[in-house]
Design a protein that fits this description.
This protein is about 50% helix and about 10% strand. The protein is an alpha+beta fold and about 550 residues long.
């Protein structure tokens, strides 16, 4: 089938973490195992291309989606978002059918090459025994998954061919449009400068509180005790598992091709970032093992312990420091200044009850690197609305600020009108601002491709500012807009010429990027059109949605 690859104990999923799977680029990653919306007893999985979808077809496609999720996310999907896995299963069924209709077949050598590149120094036997079998999968599922992934790549090239036909001239125009900088100046109107003009009366404060009372509600909170399994304590164990680290890094570098790892600016930085991420993943695994052993000890306490004493004693016997969080709500979680945790920490904390007071291990995800935790419920604090006397000072301050904010915004509108008229009579923007007792600030040049301006982002939403800037002709005043603490008026002075040398260096990769984006767009348009040509399949998808809404997506199909 795929063939045996050189055996090594570090088969770790880290090796394949960098793989970008086409179906996930198109449809987006998911977070769950799949649930079956149709009745198990009826064995009705819907229709595709005029024929009933068999249980085996459905089961095979579902296994591929679940395996694809694992390869993309380095963990098996969970039950909490089953509908998305089910939707992906039907999408995959559809694309597999299109491969058959177009006669796309993948040879043994192509599959073996991809498998070797993915597994690196690992063996297929190791991967099957340690990854696939515990999840109910086997080597045949892996082989079928790879064949269909490669088939989808071919399908994308065929269906998205028109996207590759972007001419250099068209890309030249797009590059210049995205990279031409603007030279601008800005005037801020801070609410703090207008606080002195706000008049406060008891009647106004009382009315303001009555209208805003819902905003003063203190949401439901929890407080937890936790033990931390700091990744820094597991460096030695992690490095011991990465005896072929250099090869793993090189495999990942080759997977990225000419692309760089997220945030890296040079190939050397990219390679170092990949190395660090691989090591971090290995440390997460080791910390999770230790946390899991701790949690299993907690579960086996006799008699079953439903208060914190067992948790505290176990932590002490393991020579671990016990910590307690400040109360936190569901929306914001623990304060980052106190504790850096993944979103799962907060979600699990709010699932704790007196009868089920422990959760863990809680591990970091890709977007929220942190340590590993086991937690226990200390306190649950119901939501409440504090009485006015308790928060009178805050209400008064909020009222004064809201009125000052209105005054600042009114001042920005008045100045924009004044400046627009004065510019028409030949005055400079700096002179107009000085005459009004205001101090303009020159902003660093930016373009449509600029993602941030750190110099001002503590005061203004840069996306809003950029939108105003590029919808305002040079030499004109943009419409006044709000800030976090007032308002601003932007003056667009002129467009600056594109850096031709920089463009010359960046253009080849920009052209490739545009063509790839257009190819994806063309493929998605083709996919939508093909689905519309199969009304029975559309009906199947509608039934899936309806049944999942009714059942909550919790049922599993038999396989």
């Amino acid at each position: 089938m795929i063939g045996t690859i050189r055996k090594h104990q570090t088969w770790l999923w880290i090796i394949i973490a960098a793989l970008t799977i086409l179906s996930f680029v198109i449809f987006g990653p998911t977070n769950t195992r799949m649930g079956n919306a149709f009745s198990k007893s009826s064995a009705n999985y819907g229709m595709l291309a005029g024929k009933p979808i068999t249980q085996k077809q459905y089961s095979d496609a579902n296994k591929e989606v679940v395996l694809g999720y694992f390869l993309q996310n380095q963990q098996w999907p969970r039950e909490n978002v089953a509908p998305e896995i089910q939707r992906q299963t039907y999408q995959r069924l559809f694309l597999i059918q299109k491969q058959k209709e177009l006669g796309i077949e993948i040879g043994e050598e192509a599959v073996a090459t991809v498998a070797r590149r993915m597994l690196g120094a690992a063996s297929l036997d190791d991967f099957t025994d340690k990854v696939l079998k515990p999840a109910g999968l086997n080597a045949d599922d892996f082989d079928r998954f790879l064949r269909h992934e490669l088939g989808m790549e071919q399908l994308t090239r065929v269906a998205g061919l028109s996207g590759k036909l972007v001419t250099p001239q068209e890309a030249d125009t797009l590059y210049r449009l995205e990279h031409q900088d603007l030279q601008t100046s800005i005037v801020f109107f801070s609410a703090s400068n207008y606080l002195a003009g706000v008049v406060v009366t008891p009647e106004q404060i009382s009315k303001f509180y009555s209208n805003q009372v819902a905003n003063y509600k203190i949401p439901e909170q929890v407080q937890v005790e936790y033990v931390r399994f700091a990744l820094s304590n597991y460096t030695a164990q992690a490095m011991a598992t990465l005896t072929n680290l250099d090869q793993i890094v090189e495999n990942n570098v080759q997977q990225l091709g000419t692309n760089l790892y997220h945030g890296a600016k040079t190939p050397a930085e990219s390679k170092e970032a990949i190395r660090n991420e691989i090591i971090r993943h290995a440390k997460v695994l080791e910390a999770r093992k230790a946390a899991l052993a701790f949690a299993e000890q907690l579960d086996t306490l006799q008699p079953p312990n439903r208060d914190l004493s067992g948790f505290e004693k176990l932590a002490a016997s393991n020579h671990m420091t016990l910590h307690t969080t400040a109360p936190f709500d569901r929306e914001f979680g623990p304060s980052p200044s106190e504790l850096v945790v993944p979103p799962e920490f907060t979600r699990k904390a709010f699932e704790l009850t007196k009868d089920d007071p422990f959760q863990g291990p809680i591990v970091p995800d890709e977007l929220h690197p942190s340590d590993v935790f086991v937690i226990a419920l200390k306190d649950h604090i119901p939501a409440r609305i504090p009485p006015f006397r308790e928060i009178e000072a805050k209400v008064t301050a909020d009222y004064r600020f809201s009125q000052a904010l209105q005054l600042a915004q009114q001042a920005s509108i008045h100045f924009a009108t004044l400046a627009t008229n004065a510019l028409a009579h030949g005055k400079s923007f700096n002179t107009i601002a000085a005459d009004a007792g205001l101090k303009p600030e020159s902003l660093p040049p930016f373009n449509l491709n600029t993602q941030s301006l750190p110099e001002i982002e503590d005061r203004v939403n840069f996306r809003l500012l950029r939108q105003i800037a590029f919808s305002t002709p040079p030499g004109k005043i943009g419409p006044p807009a709000g800030t976090r603490d007032g308002a601003f008026v932007l003056y667009v002075e002129k467009r600056l010429p594109v850096d031709e040398e920089k463009m010359k260096k960046e253009f080849p990769s920009f052209l490739a990027y545009v063509r790839q984006s257009r190819q994806s767009d063309a493929f998605n348009q083709w996919f939508s059109a093909e689905v519309r040509r199969d009304p029975e399949f559309i009906q199947t998808l509608q039934q899936v949605t309806e049944q999942m809404q009714k059942s909550g997506g919790s049922r599993q199909p038999s396989s």
